[in-house]
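quick q for whoever's on today - can somebody do inverse folding on this one?? i tried earlier but teh output was garbage lol. C-alpha cells:
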C-alpha cells in the first residue's frame, strides 16, 4: 500500500504543484489519477519513485517512508512507463527491455531471456526483439515500454499517460492488455490520465484532481457516476452519462 499524508510540492520557481494531498493507494489494484493538464498528476506520480521529492508531508510504501530509501533502490522496485514509451532509439528492443536489469547487474544472457518472456507477456512477437524502436508502430513501442517497466519485476507500476500518443483503436487494445496484465500479474498500478473514460475503464479507484492536486472526488467508477460530489465532477464526468 502507498500512502500520501499531507504531501505538498513547491517547485523552485514558486509553483505550488501539490497542496496538502492525502491518499491511500491499495496494493494489487489500479488507482487512476485523473484531471486536466496542470492538476499535479505527474508530480504526484513521480514522488512515488522520487523523481520528484515532496516539500512537506510524508509518503510511505508498505509503511516505509520513501525519503529514507535511495532513489536508485526505489527504481529497482518500481516500474515506470511514460508517454512516448521513452525508449532509447539506438538500442534494440531487447536491449531496451533489459536496460534496468543490466544496470542492476543481471548477466546479459539472463536479462535477455527474461526480456523475451516479457515480450510474450505484453503480446509482442519475439521476432521484433532485434529491431530498433523506430522500426515499430506506436502501439508496439508502448508495449515495449510496458515490458521495460515490468523488467525489474516490480510490485508497483507507475504509468504516466502511457497510451496518450497512440490512435484510438490501438489504445483500446492496450487498455484491455493492461487489464489482463494486472489480473494476471497482480501489480499495484498507479495510472495517470486526463481522459475520464480511460480512468473509469481501468480504475478500481478513481481519483479526480483539480488544480494543486486537490481531490474533487475519489471512489469506484460506479460510486462517482452514481453520485458526483460537485458540479465540477458532474461536468468532468459528463452530464450525458
Ligand atoms: P499534470 O500532470 O496534471 O499535467 P504536473 O504535475 O505536470 O500536472 O504539473 C503541476 C503544476 O506544476 C503545473 O502548474 C506545472 O506547470 C508545474 N510544474 C511541473 N513541473 C515543474 C517544474 N519542474 N518546475 C516548475 N513547475 C513545475
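ok took a stab at it. sequence:
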Amino acid at each position: 500500500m502507498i500512502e500520501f499524508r499531507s504531501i505538498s510540492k513547491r517547485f523552485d520557481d514558486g509553483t505550488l504543484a501539490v497542496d496538502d494531498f492525502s491518499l491511500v493507494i491499495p496494493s494489487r489494484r489500479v488507482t487512476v489519477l485523473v484531471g486536466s493538464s496542470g492538476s499535479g498528476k505527474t508530480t504526484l506520480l513521480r514522488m512515488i519513485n522520487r523523481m520528484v521529492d515532496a516539500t512537506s508531508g510524508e509518503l510511505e510504501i508498505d509503511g516505509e517512508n520513501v525519503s529514507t530509501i535511495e532513489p536508485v533502490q526505489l527504481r529497482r522496485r518500481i516500474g515506470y512507463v511514460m508517454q512516448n514509451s521513452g525508449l532509447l532509439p539506438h538500442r534494440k528492443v531487447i536491449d531496451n527491455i533489459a536496460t534496468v536489469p543490466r544496470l542492476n547487474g543481471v548477466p546479459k544472457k539472463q536479462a535477455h531471456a527474461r526480456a523475451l518472456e516479457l515480450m510474450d507477456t505484453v503480446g509482442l512477437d519475439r521476432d521484433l526483439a532485434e529491431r530498433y524502436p523506430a522500426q515499430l508502430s506506436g502501439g508496439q513501442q508502448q508495449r515495449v515500454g510496458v515490458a521495460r517497466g515490468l523488467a525489474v519485476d516490480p510490485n508497483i507500476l507507475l504509468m504516466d499517460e502511457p497510451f496518450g500518443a497512440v490512435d484510438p483503436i490501438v489504445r483500446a487494445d492496450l487498455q484491455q492488455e493492461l487489464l489482463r496484465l494486472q489480473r494476471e500479474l497482480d501489480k499495484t498500478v498507479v495510472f495517470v490520465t486526463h481522459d475520464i473514460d480511460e480512468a473509469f475503464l481501468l480504475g478500481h479507484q478513481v481519483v479526480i484532481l483539480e488544480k494543486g492536486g486537490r481531490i474533487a472526488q475519489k471512489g469506484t467508477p460506479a460510486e462517482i457516476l452514481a453520485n458526483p460530489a460537485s458540479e465540477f465532477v458532474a461536468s468532468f464526468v459528463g452530464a450525458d452519462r
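fwiw Residues 201 and 221 are 8 Å apart (CA to CA). also The pocket of adenosine-5'-diphosphate is lined by residues 11, 13, 15, 17, 35, 37-43 (CB under 6 Å). so keep that in mind when u check it
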